[in-house]
Amino acid sequence: MRRISLRAGYYSALVPALFFGGIVMTVYLPNMGGSGLSLPLNILSWIALCCFALLIIQAPKVWQRYRRSASLFWLYAGCVVLVIRALLTPLPWFNDALIVAIGIVAGLSFYRLLLQLPWRRQHLFAILSTLWIASVLQCVIAVIQLFHLKAAAWWEFSPAQLRPYGIFQQVNVLASFIACGIAATLLLLLYRSKTTRWKRVLLHISLTLQGFVLYACQSQIGYLSTALVILACLGLFWPQRFIIFAAIISLVAGGILSFAVHVWLQFPTVVHTDSTHTRLLIWQHSGQLFSMHPLFGWGVGSFESVFLHQFGGQITNVGIRTVSHPHNEILLWLVEGGIFAAVGMLMLLIAIITLWLNGGRLQRAMLLTASPIALHMMTEFPLYQSAPHWILLIVLLRCADRPYSTSTMPMSMRWIRGGMIFFTVFAAGVLIQTLYLQNQLTTVERNGTQYELPSRAVWQTVLQQDRYEYDRQMGELLRFNHVQDINALRNVEQWAADYTLRHPDNNLYAVRIQIATYLNDPIQAEQLTNEARWLFPADPRWTVNRNTEQP
């Protein structure tokens, strides 16, 4: 068999990766914000992952040898434990838990497919090059947003927004991605130190741009992640420390330039004291939730409801907001999955330690490139806000792995290819339908025409069932103003009671109170008012001249 040249191998990995990093990650579609599949970028990212999976499944090399790695067992074991815990979630939150389980299985399957590819050093450098280009593109978008240029309207960047967020719609998510890009730039400088001078100059210019945007984000996690990456690179590449010192100078120069621009244009400085205090309060009360159900937790997807109903909005200082995540992924699994889920997390940690111990210097460097995402997971929830972070984490973990061939792929395994193709195409079809539905929901929400929503089959709304049903019920309320159907009000109340149990919503409580008043049920109205006052103490609709007390 003719051996593929190093240059051909490099570009074979670079082209599909560039499609994702250079095209998909710059496409913005109108949306109403949020996280998960409410963001078109995340849906597009999952569609791109399905397309990449189909390309890998079709590759002949994938089905020639069966490849294993020392960490694979622990990855399988950890993911199986987490999926089992998700599937054992009680009914009120089962749909949310099922989506989490599907995400874990999809991520593990994609990792397993990548493991079948015989990647060499040039493929790893292709991944680093793609990450570098993607981070530079995000920096360009961020600069456009920072100075509120006309092109910022392409991303619906608000004139009131003071900090850029790139395509991610959240500042800290952009900052952690830029930190990953800085790590990739450092590694390209270290491993390409003998490359042409203009390429080295280009890398240093990009570091200056990344430093400029990193300061503009004013993100604590961005600063901390970058510092961690630099210190880790110094530890791994101490003999080449002068290259790293030169890179630090370029990075700091960008930060100083950004600081000067902020002073000159009188951009305000973000104070993180309140957010840090709130995060510490959430962690403290999350620990109390874990102590109440330590073995199996409250159920995957239950945190938002359980946290607010248990402690209320006054103690936790959340006002009229809800807390959907404790801002720490390990703590989330402890609360929702208990010690059972903690065993799965421990297995995943063992897998990462195994990657580090069995990897060479390049593999360990690839693992460190993923460290900003891992660190961000300890303070927020980037994997829910950004599917590109999830995909990047999987790819970088694969780059840190060193698989070995054990045997020829048995014929029975090759028959699985047809099933994999079917499920991947089916998943892509559902995601495309979800993207279309997201666009439709955004349109009716912005125009206030929820009553125009048509009925849809379950498979068409399965990934956005809560949001679709929310808009449909709001449409029923709008229609009630014309038809005055009392049964419609009762149906809305029945649905809203179930929805607020899973996802507390101050606007829905206001609707339920109005419905109870209209139906001449003062006891129900008073009960709902007390409950709303406990959950959302800063909402003036029920807090005027009343003390907050638990219902």
Automatic annotation (TrEMBL):
It holds the Pfam family Wzy_C. It is found in: Membrane. The keyword Membrane applies. Residues 164-189 form the Protein glycosylation ligase domain. It comes from the Bacteria. The chain crosses the membrane at residues 9-29, 41-60, 72-91, 97-115, 124-147, 167-191, 212-237, 243-265, 330-357, 381-400, 420-437. InterPro entries: O-antigen_ligase-rel_domated, PglL_A, WaaL-like, Wzy_C_2. Keywords: Membrane, Transmembrane, Transmembrane helix. Residues 366-542 form the Virulence factor membrane-bound polymerase C-terminal domain. This is Polymerase. It comes from Hafnia paralvei.
